[in-house]
Amino acid sequence: MSGLHPILRDNYNDFGYEDDCMLVTQEIYDKYLKEYEGQSESDNGDFFDLDGDPVSPDFINNKYICVVDYHS
After folding, report:
1. What is the 3-state secondary structure (H, E, C) of 29-42?
2. pTM for the full model?
């Protein structure tokens, strides 16, 4: 890992960080998306695809995954 540690860096950076949005790799797919395979969004709101595409291995190297941290 390089750069600032995700837990220790400023969570209020107005422009985010370079790794907040990343191209889906096999590792990212397996760790974060595989459980949603066949769904275009999760029941609990943790995931949704802006294009409405159901999750599939086709996401690898073709879609981006982005972190959205929204709270008041």
Report:
1. HHHHHHHHECCCEC
2. 0.69
